[in-house]
Each structure stands twice: as structure tokens, then as C-alpha cells.
From TrEMBL, chains A, B:
Name this polypeptide is given: UDP-arabinopyranose mutase
Similarity comment: Belongs to the RGP family.
Uppermost EC category: isomerase
Cellular localization per UniProt: Golgi apparatus
EC code: 5.4.99.30
Function description: Probable UDP-L-arabinose mutase involved in the biosynthesis of cell wall non-cellulosic polysaccharides.
Organism of origin: Physcomitrium patens (Spreading-leaved earth moss)
Lineage of producing organism: Eukaryota, Viridiplantae, Streptophyta, Embryophyta, Bryophyta
Gene Ontology molecular functions: UDP-arabinopyranose mutase activity
Length: 376, 376
């Protein structure tokens, strides 16, 4: 059903400045999720693009601290006390003192699409000096198909002025539905601590005017800074793991989610895109602090990547939830030798997907009640 | 041996305008191969960039026609009579009345690198209006490693101002040696006949400032218009098939070579890049003529692509020649049901690689004689 809906939109949504005749694109179908520990002043700059949408703010750290949200934004805010109250014992799967807590916002959303952005990301400009409406580009990416089965050398074939090139099989030109749109960053690049230490002043100034599908079977490093996805298609796998407080690792939350999501998208035949849109990433985090958080991950990823490259999901796994449970099982079996952390992570993955299913059911029930239909 | 040589050059050749202290980059290690049926006036525009290099011109069609080469270029020219004389009965593997004949030039070269370009390709300009030295960019691509095992979201990590992003395994950051650099085209895009017919006026005006590795396991449509490769690494597989005169198909010569080369590069651990450099492609060929040449390919590729996606080469095949012989065998066995053409093509592939080996041996002998060493 998802596919046929997408196919009818394959040439992308016709829009002007993110607006349709009915108002901002997908206004009632998309939530913006922001993890934060501070005031959200960055939203002032985003006002023309993001203010029509509903925000889900996940407050990390001290729950007694008051987070200031610029006026005019419609939002709901969850702090640690809320997470504990809503999830009960299952709250253990949601990280604390790490931006991994953002995935709680994905769970609480009742919408089909999510855009998540960090609070140190600002509006970028294209080479002609125009502000980039990042959300509009993400929506265009999500509403047009992906092409994971064969590489198109002129990049996104659905974009105006482009198409499939000679030699591209015609049977593959409908593409597949897109689950994830991964955006990039101008100014401060998303480097690991060792690279930050070696190249403290490097800035990304290259605007690459392309969106492309990551081919089937290829893993990529998914950054959570500027990311959109179809919550109904892949949300149950968009779990940011156990990071931060009480955990031996940090800064691998989005990477973990990306590896899990990519193997599941490949299995289920969904597409993952990367490239446009750019945001302006303002400030590099402290490389010494980052090194402390990352160093185990730097070792572990040498074994984690081959694991994900070889993982095979059974044919019987036909929903994201089924795939995720199976993946959790394999993580527990095959990565536990690396560190006991992976046994905990495997369990947390199961807890996450159980909590996801419970919250989804309660959303459906309350929606049915709101619609006046009988709930048995 | 090839790898260690490349690793020392991993950060790319330091150059200014394609020049080193010793003169033009790789001047004595690279040949330019041009298939043509007409005068090579386009070389006038390329003079600042290509004139220091040796040309190998493969004259297609009527051998009595005189091809005019602009003055000052150093070249050798082969027409059909030469091909027949040099290869004898094996000349049957070289296509006639089709630009597929260019691969004879690859065979006759004694150099390590090849750049091949069509005679309707002109010097393109970047968005700031500067002429693009396509050959210099190809050389940069070939002399820096590829990253086929994991996707880097900031594209070529070896380029100035870029690097590997967070989450990219450190053990994979040395990359692998690059065998092929596939360049793109501004103005007239490389579309098939149906797309040309549907979009007769479409021009490619988007300059995408990126070079990327095509991931391992992913096929792509390789266009022969603007292409460079390491002849020692992959030349024996750069066979453009049986096309044109007396054959049921045309315009799939470069595609065939690309599919064969990609599966062999994947098997041998070599890299394939696409993206920069752009050339300006001046003139769309006639879509009606093209449709006649292509239409069987349009059907056949629907079975050819799954064949190449599933092909497995044996571990014992450790040279390009061994891989190519094995691939020819599988083409004969698995595609012969599609059309008797594939039985002929399979045989021609074997003939090609035998001819390649013979010519290579005779080159080595004549070089040894020239060096004054004894040849037994």
C-alpha cells in the first residue's frame, strides 16, 4: 500500500517554497523532534520553515531546568520524569545525558513522518546565497522513490532536469519507496574525535548539489543531526541505543540506528537517500570529551561493521518490528563476545520495540476514541 | 605491488594545472584513445590539456578516408586494414562501424593508463566559468584510492577539505587502488533512445562537485565518452563487445565493458569512481537511429543485469585475464538462451583476451629488445 501511494508521487511534490495550495507541505503528517539541554534560540532562525509544524522536544539532563521555546511554536516537551512515568520499567531503554534520548520523541509522535535536527544547526545558504529550506528538501526526498538496485550516474533520476541514463534497466525505473532522507552539513563537518584532533580547523565548504540513493548492500554512517524518515515504514528500527549516562560509550547512537535501519531497509526493499539538504553546523564539540565517549566505539566498530555487512534476516521477517527483534537476537548472539555491553544492548533493543508497539497501540486506541468509534 | 605503490600516493598528486616539476602529469605513462570517422577538429580546443600526450586514433568505417589530425599532436592511427593485418583472424572480435572499435586502441597502447574521449566532447566550464582540465581530474581520481566497502557521506574522503566522517571504520580508510575513473557530461546527457524521444530538449546543466566510489556489489551504466582507466589493472576486461556492422545491437559497447569490469573489479578488490570531471557533450545523436541500434538491448538488459548481479567468480581467478575467461564462459552458458548472439559474444570475449595477451607479449619483447636485453 505504501508503495502504490508513493508511485503516484514519483516525480516529487510540486511545491513553491515548501507551500502547497493547502498550506505547508505535510503540515499535519510530520513532527519535528529535537533533543536538547538548553534554550532553543536556534528556532528563531528556522521560523519561516519550521513554525507551521508541531515540535516534540526531548529534554535531556536535569528535568527541573526550564527550557525556553520561542513563541509561536506548537510543541510538546518530555523530560526524564515524563519518560519514566510513560514507559515505566521500559524507560531503561531510553538513554540519559546523551542525544540518543531523541528516539523517545520518535516513539511519542503520532505522525507518519519525522524530521529531527540538533539545536546547534542553523539555516545554510546555497552557493547563490539563498537560504535552504532543509525540511522541504527532506520531504521531496521522502516523497520520491529511491533506486537502491542500480546506480544512476546522474544522481537522483526523479529530479527536474535529470533522468535515468542509457543502460539503466527500464524495469527498475519505478524505484522503491523511500524510508530515510539523510541530510548533510556545511561548516563544521561530522568528524570523529581523532579526525577533529588532527584537523581542528577543517570546515566543509563544498556544496554538492546532489541527492543519491545508498545502494542495497552498502552501509553508511548515518548522522542524526539533520535527518528525516518515514516513521510508519522504519520508525520501529530508529532506536538510538544505550549511550551516555551509565554506559561505556557515546556518540554512536545515530550510527547504531543507521546500521540497523539500513540492513532492515535492504531486507524489506525500502530506499535510503543521502545528500541534500545541507544545514549549517555551527560548533564543533570538544574533541577530548568526544574521544572519551568514542574510544570504545572506535575499536568495536571494526567488528560491528563486518557483523552488519554479513547479517541476513529471515524471509519470514516481513515487518520492521519482526526484523528488529531478529536483529536484536543476532546482536546478542554474535557481538556479545566483544563486550557484555552488547548483551545489554540486545535486550534494550527488544525493550524498545515492545515499548514502540505498546505506545502505537495506545495511540491507535485514543485515535479511535477521538473518532467516536467503539474500542473493544 | 600495485596497492603499495598507490598507498604512497593516497592523498593525490600535488599539481598545478596538471603540471608537475617534470612536466604534464603522467605524460609518458598515459595514452589518449579516440575512435573517429571524421576530422578531429575538437582537438584544437583541447590543445592546452591534451597536446603533450600521445594519441591512439582508431579510424572507424572506410579505411581510404583521410582523417585530419590537428598539427602538433603526436599520434598513431589505425584503420580497419591495420586491425585486420595486426590481429589476423582474431580481428573478428573488434567491432566495425561502431565506436566499440576503440578497444583496439587500448590493446595497442604500451602505457599504464588510458584516457578515452569521443570526438563530439568539448572542454566544459565549472560554475565559476573556468575551463575544466578533464584529464587532470581523471589522473587525480586514478592516483587516489577508492572506498568501495563503506559509503562516505562527504563523498571523496581524499579530496582537499574532506575526510572520512564519524562512524567510518578506521581499518577501511586506506581504501583500495582505483582502476576506473568515469567522468560525466554537461549539456547533452547520455540518454537512451526512448528517453531522447520523450525529452528531446533536456540538457544537463547541473554541476555536481563530487567524485565518489561506486560501492562493491553495485552495477552502474559506464559511458565510454569520457573515461579513464588503469590499463595494467583492468585493461584486459575493457572489451567493448560485438556491436555495429553485422551485429544485432549497438550502443551497448561501453555498458557491456562497464558491467564486466565492475564485477571483476569487485572480485579483485579494485575501485571504480564516478563523477568529476565533466566534459561538454555537444550533440545528441539521432534518437530514431539509436532506437534501431538499441531496441534489442533494451529487452536483453532486463536479463543481463540480473546475470551480472548474481555472477560469482571463482577464488582461483586472481588475474584480470583469468576473471575475463571465466566471465566469458558464464556468458556463454547463462545468456545463450536469450539469443545466439551471446554465444558469439562469449567466443569473441575469449578471442579478445587471447589477442590482448599476444599483443602484450609482443610489446614486452620489443621493449626488451629496445632495452638491449636478451630475449629468449
Amino acid at each position: 500500500m505504501i508503495r502504490s501511494e508513493r508511485s503516484s508521487k514519483r516525480r516529487g511534490a510540486a511545491t513553491t517554497g515548501g507551500m502547497t495550495a493547502r498550506g505547508p507541505l505535510l503540515k499535519d503528517e510530520l513532527d519535528i523532534v529535537i533533543p536538547t539541554i538548553r534554550d532553543l534560540a536556534f528556532l528563531e532562525q528556522w521560523r519561516p520553515y519550521l513554525s507551521p509544524y508541531h515540535l516534540i522536544i526531548v529534554q535531556d539532563g536535569d528535568p527541573t531546568k526550564k527550557i525556553h521555546v520561542p513563541e509561536g511554536y506548537d510543541y510538546e516537551l518530555y523530560n526524564r520524569n515524563d519518560i519514566n512515568r510513560i514507559l515505566g520499567p521500559k524507560a531503561s531503554c531510553i538513554s540519559f545525558k546523551d542525544s540518543a534520548c531523541r528516539c523517545f520523541g520518535f516513539m511519542m509522535s503520532k505522525k507518519k513522518y519525522i524530521f529531527t535536527i540538533d539545536d546547534d544547526c542553523w539555516v545554510a545558504k546555497d552557493p547563490s546565497g539563498h537560504e535552504i529550506n532543509a525540511l522541504e528538501q527532506h520531504i521531496t526526498n521522502l516523497l520520491s522513490p529511491s533506486t537502491p538496485l542500480f546506480f544512476n550516474t546522474l544522481y537522483d533520476p526523479y529530479r527536474a532536469g535529470a533522468d535515468f541514463v542509457r543502460g539503466y534497466p527500464f524495469s527498475m525505473r519505478e524505484g522503491v519507496a523511500t524510508a530515510i532522507s539523510h541530510g548533510l552539513w556545511l561548516n563544521v563537518p561530522d568528524y570523529d574525535a581523532p579526525t577533529q584532533l588532527v584537523k581542528p580547523a577543517e570546515k566543509n565548504t563544498r556544496f554538492v548539489d546532489a541527492v543519491m540513493t545508498i545502494p542495497k548492500g552498502t552501509l553508511f554512517p548515518m548522522c542524526g543531526m539533520n535527518l528525516a524518515f518515514d516513521r510508519e515504514m522504519i520508525g520501529a528500527a530508529m532506536y538510538f541505543g544505550l549511550m551516555g549516562d551509565g554506559q561505556p560509550i557515546g556518540r554512536y547512537d545515530d550510527m547504531w540506528a543507521g546500521w540497523c535501519c539500513k540492513v532492515i531497509c535492504d531486507h524489506l526493499g525500502f530506499g535510503v537517500k543521502t545528500g541534500l539538504p545541507y544545514i549549517h553546523h555551527s560548533k564543533a564539540s570538544n574533541p577530548f570529551v568526544n574521544l572519551k565517549k568514542e574510544y570504545k566505539g572506535i575499536f568495536w566498530q571494526e567488528e560491528i561493521i563486518p557483523f552488519f555487512q554479513q547479517v541476513v534476516l529471515p524471509k519470514e521477517a516481513v515487518t520492521v518490528e519482526q526484523c528488529y527483534i531478529e536483529l536484536a537476537k543476532q546482536v546478542g548472539e554474535k557481538l556479545n563476545g566483544l563486550d557484555p555491553y552488547f548483551t545489554n544492548l540486545s535486550k534494550a533493543m527488544v525493550t524498545w520495540v515492545e515499548a514502540w508497539s505498546e505506545i502505537s497501540s495506545s495511540h491507535k486506541k485514543s485515535q479511535a476514541t477521538a473518532n467516536g468509534s467503539a474500542v473493544k
